[in-house]
Amino acid sequence: MVSIEALRGCELFGELNDAELGEMAALCREESYPAGATIFTEAEMAEDIYILQEGRVILQIQLHSMTQVSGDVTIEEVEPGHIFGWSALVKQRRLTASAQCLEDVRVVTMKGQALNELFEKNAHIGFVVMKRLADVISSRLRITRERLAERGQTPGEPSAGQS
To answer: Are 51 and 81 in contact (CB under 8 A)?
Structure first.
């Protein structure tokens, strides 16, 4: 079983008490991925949420113009204690980015459905986690806009040469 200490260091769970972290730990499992592995791909169905414990993971989105794929943009390098795969917790359940390992990685994972069921049983856990998740999503959106601005594009805007 994953320790509550491993969860306490996660950006979503810092405000939870030991009993609440214990409930969450019961839903967790550890996984490892080698350098170069793709953990998940943008637009796939999201089932798991991931907490990076060790290693380096980048999140990338694929840009599209009206006629072609414009390439991948790295929107963030995930730091230990941070989450990715958050789409497993929201209704759309489609991944909004791809996750690629830059080096060997160790993560804690939880099934999004099981976590949502826990939120239904314990509204305080659900409120705290979803409040923090809103902060994470907001930050990722800001970072994505900055990265696109560096490339000279904004979301929804046609690529250069497109009308």
So the answer is: yes
Domain with residue 122: its CATH number is 2.60.120.10
Domain count of the chain?
Answer: 1
Residue 126, domain member (yes or no): yes
What is the domain extent for residue 24? Answer: 4-151
- 163 located within any domain: no
Tokens 């998740």: give the residue.
Answer: 133
Query: In Å, what is the CA distance from 121 to each residue of 16, 19, 20, 72?
Result: 15, 14, 11, 39
Distance, in Å, from the CA atom of 102 to the CA atom of 120, rounded to the nearest integer, reads 36
Does 128 have pLDDT greater than 80? yes
Summarize pLDDT for 89-115 with one digit per residue, the tens.
998 889 999 999 999 999 999 999 999
Residues forming beta bridges with residue 38, ordered by sequence position? 100
CA–CA gap between residue 52 and residue 106 (Å, rounded): 6
Classify residue 9: in a domain, yes or no: yes
CB atoms within 10 A of CB 148: 17
Q: How confident is the model at residue 146 (pLDDT cuts 50, 70, 90)?
A: confident
Structure tokens at 62: 């694929």
